[in-house]
From TrEMBL:
InterPro entries: KH_dom, KH_dom-like_a/b, KH_NusA_2nd, KH_sf_prok-type, NA-bd_OB-fold, NusA_N_sf, S1_domain, TF_NusA. It comes from the Bacteria. Belongs to the NusA family. GO terms for cellular component: cytosol. Gene3D superfamilies: 3.30.300.20, Nucleic acid-binding proteins (2.40.50.140), NusA, N-terminal domain (3.30.1480.10). Residues 382-392 have a biased composition (Low complexity). The gene is nusA. Signal peptide: none annotated. Monomer. Binds directly to the core enzyme of the DNA-dependent RNA polymerase and to nascent RNA. This is Transcription termination/antitermination protein NusA. NCBIfam families: NusA.
Amino acid sequence: MSAELLHALEQLEKERGINKDILVEAIEQALISAYKRNFGSAQNVEVVIDRTTGDVRVFTHKTIVGEVTDPATELSIEQAKRFGADFEIGDIVEVEVTPRKFGRIAAQTAKQVVMQRIREAERGIIYDEFANKEEDIVSGIISRFDRKNVIIDLGRAEAILPPGEQTPGEKYNVHDRIKVYVINVKKTNKNPQIYVSRTHPGLVKRLLELEVPEIADGTVEIKNIAREAGSRTKIAIHSRNENVDPVGACVGQKGSRIRAIVDELRGEMIDVIKWSSNPEEFIASSLSPAKVVQVDLDEEAKVARVIVPDFQLSLAIGKEGQNARLAAKLTGWKIDIKSESQFRSQIESQLFHPGALSGQEEGDAAYDDAEVPDEADIQMSAAENTEANAVAEDSDYDNETVTADDENL
């Protein structure tokens, strides 16, 4: 050890944030092990490094005895007189036992400890950096594939995109730049494991916050999101400022703000819906792009019976029931959809055959969030549940809802 090494440790503290005193203490502990390994494990030794000069001294504690049987741990009363005249049998004396060639051992040990602590510190810094990015977006480049996992280079670390977090239908190619949502960061003995997602609702929420200033500053609030990744997302938004149109804010002029989100999600459709505290209005809007004629609520059962024009029935239900599923998930209501002709037929049947029909008749469609894979809870927490879908040009929206995909952007 030397003053130069201490200076190097000070520089390391400034550049890497590794506390110099902690490093010196770690070197002292490592030197104790090195001493015992080279000069006798039975001794109770202490290593002290001078914080100014860098000098290393080794001390052991010996017990004063009448007759020495173990020179490594015992000292006679005559020998103890060299350290003072007031010692008695049974006293403990601190004796310096620094070997002549201990400086070389100290230098090697110090180097090993410093390198180990640098690696540990770097791992800790990387862990802290990405742990603070949980539930946030990071950008990286696809570097390789490990079995079915996609490995993404984030610069100082690598992220793992597991199969279950990959969007159905998306193709991932080496060297592609990609944005992902950090779902979990695990500390390990090596580098931290960073797990990311392309399907998590939070990805859409964060993308909206990046692209829409009114969302980022809290003027426009994301109330709920329902998403089937890779296909369609519905997002309910609300403006805290009556002078700010939330749908228009999200869409931007000619769809400029939402276009980047649609592109990043590789064409995933997005329905931007104006949230309402009135359940009938909210449910009607949630079934966009279909137009709703009537909404009747069963508050106790939390069922909404929705009437749509005959030619809008398939649009309201959506392909494989997707539009209705997402609407149910977004609103938290089970939705029973009927066309106008189905509704008239049911009323006529009840008039002429009382009690013949009750509830849902053949051909009706009822949907609730339980029929959707549980990607997220309907009652979205700001940190957990978020999903989104694309938007449309200004001419396509009516200040209540907007639906968009690649074709109409």
